[in-house]
Amino acid sequence: MALWKPAALILALTMAVSGTAACSRLGLGGGSPDAPQNLENFTAEQIYKRGEYELENTRRPEDAVRYFSEIERLYPYSEWAKRALIMQAYANHRAKNYEEARGAAQRFIDTYPGDEDAAYAKYLLALSYYDQIDEVGRDQGLTFRALQAMREVIEEYPDTEYARSAILKFDLAFDHLAAKEMEIGRYYLKSGHYTAAINRFRVVVEEFQTTTHTPEALMRLVEAYLSLGLNDEAQTAGAILGHNFQSTPYYQDAYNQLRGRGLTATPQGDSWLTQVYRQVIQGQWL
């Protein structure tokens, strides 16, 4: 039996497969929810191919899940059951049944940890978290789990295509966390809760400094510190912004705010921002 590659199969699913006539020859039902019945009379391969057909030719990937699940039930521990298990994960992900996708992917990892397709299963598991964090306001626990799962793919399978994709998605999820801190910080700033806002912007500057949100966080720090009358901190935040992001509109905004108070964007005092500024000058920040 030839080795089966899930990535190759998924690519193939974008092309034409056997078609309705082939499924008719197999004697399997159509795409209705009640189709998987009396499957004991068919081989694992026949049921599997019907699952493939459902993925390619219908808009109900959950129907494919039913076929792949039956293979696992009727032909446990077989090669086809192994193939069907990871395809359960894929089909559930297509259907946006993310918890079920994670469950199938994790069963594959637990049952076949040394299999060459374990990397794909691990990636599917991570992707099932990642695809749920498309909105900034959603539960950030999903983002943390996505980051952890993507990191595992990167560390455990560094030379695979899945690791390369995981690196890109890791960066985007990391940026997402910073976006959430910024969203909350802006709310506090607008509400006049300046200390609470500063705490949020500080997290972005110290923990998410490689994200796209750092310039705005520094500008907001200037605004918040000026509102509290803490001019040294405001000037130091402006100095960091000018050193790294002078070409951005955020620097111009901060510069105008400082200039309006007769201040300059130069480091002052000995705050946490002063420490950050020293690291910038030494080339150890960002």
From TrEMBL:
Residues 43-237 form the Outer membrane lipoprotein BamD-like domain. It is found in: Cell outer membrane. CDD domains: BamD. It is a lipid-anchor. Residues 1-21 form the signal peptide. InterPro entries: BamD, BamD-like, TPR-like_helical_dom_sf. Belongs to the BamD family. Part of the Bam complex. This is Outer membrane protein assembly factor BamD.
